[in-house]
Amino acid sequence: MKLIKTINRENEIVNFYNQPINGGESIIMGGRQYWMVRINKDFSNSEINRRKEVRGNYNVSIKCCKNCNSTMSVKNNFYTSTYSKDGYQSICKHCAKKQNKEYYNEMKLVA
Predict the structure, then answer these.
(1) For residue 53, what pLDDT is reported?
(2) Would the pTM count as exceeding 0.70?
């Protein structure tokens, strides 16, 4: 798929492609077939937030790992999480890496 032409209008951007594209309209110009895609400028300029905000507003500095039961600072020892109230995962980085490695090795044997 190759972008042939872009037209920048007041409220939308129109792109023309030489191959079929999902959501595109088929048009014929100069005896050739192109696929047109319209993009609203309001949508193209908006920011997409891919990460959720942390639910709670807690200032946590020390946390206990649910796996190894050791208490340590959260700064370099816990991964962030948008699903927990305090903003950090329930297990420390060391335990998370260990679990991921075990899972990877288990899946390696299955495949």
Answers:
(1) 62
(2) no
